[in-house]
Amino acid sequence: MSLVAELPSIVRVQPTQCIDGILFYEGEYNGWFEAEYTANPEPWDYSKRAGEMFRIRFAAEKVRACNAAPENLLELGCSRGLMTERLLTFARNLYAADISATALKTCKARCDAGAKEYGCQITYLGTTAGNLPLTDSSLDLVTICDGLYGWWLSDEQKRRALVDVHRVLKQGGHVVLSDCLMNGEQRWRGRERDSVSPRHGPPIVDSSICRCLPSTKKKRCSEGTAP
Ligand SMILES: C[S@@+](CC[C@H](N)C(=O)[O-])C[C@H]1O[C@@H](n2cnc3c(N)ncnc32)[C@H](O)[C@@H]1O
């Protein structure tokens, strides 16, 4: 039996979990991000940094300049929804994807009311770059916000992420990439990148608190149940 009875038409793969309306997929998850979101509601303080907010506004305007009324728009790395809430004002169907269950939950709480107001259908996807569960040639626009540089991907993973974005784009579609303005030291607060190892598989989600465990911990919390 399907986990989700009716998926949006361009979502070609059934999720492995569906929790609180967010679809989760298998993938190469770096649990460090989820650990950051569970430790701090806004790990990078973007909403308190004028430069970052200006960049997000600028990037959203660039996306809109490419296509002011896209049928299908994907935001990869949507985080807590700071850019998502701008994109929902002009996209008909918006796919907001991130590897962090906590970030996606915050993004959904931030954006659902606005989406209703603007008549935008948002689908929240717990998935990794390079593993998009979307149909070939289905998107008018893709934006990658903080971004290929900041995800700690290997060159091969970066290549796969871009090949996959190209696969899902319609001919003539556009991609807008942006990354954060902070330097590495500010951004990662001195944490060692080498201490992070990716964990394979879908996020381990507790259905009540909706969080993933960091990759460095071995303990698993109970798996979420499908609604
Ligand atoms: C630096 S954060 C973005 C911060 C954000 N713009 C904000 O408002 O706080 C990067 C985002 O990309 C997500 N991410 C990291 N690796 C990813 C991957 N491989 N695929 C998709 N998203 C990823 C993280 O979970 C995080 O939400």
What key attributes describe this structure?
two-stranded antiparallel ribbon, 19% strand, 7-stranded mixed β-sheet, 227 residues, alpha/beta
Radius of gyration: 16 Å
Supply the CATH architecture of the domain at 17-143 and 152-172. Answer: 3-Layer(aba) Sandwich
Provide the residue-averaged pLDDT: 82
**Low-confidence regions:** 189-227
CATH topology call of the domain at 17-143 and 152-172: Rossmann fold
CATH top level of the domain at 17-143 and 152-172 is Alpha Beta
Structure notes:
This protein has 227 residues and is an alpha/beta fold. It has a domain at 17-143 and 152-172: Rossmann fold (3-Layer(aba) Sandwich), CATH 3.40.50. It contains 6 helices and 9 strands. The chain has helices at 31-39, 50-66, 84-87, 101-118, 155-168, 184-188, and strands at residues 17-19, 22-24, 28-29, 72-76, 93-98, 121-126, 139-145, 169-178, 199-200. The strands form 2 sheets. It has a 7-stranded mixed sheet with strand order 1-2-6-5-4-7-8. The protein has a two-stranded antiparallel sheet with strand order 3-9. A hairpin with a 2-residue loop joins strand 1 (17-19) and strand 2 (22-24). It is globular and about 40 Å long. Mean pLDDT is 82; it is low at 189-227. The structure holds S-adenosylmethionine (SAM). S-adenosylmethionine (SAM) binds next to loops.
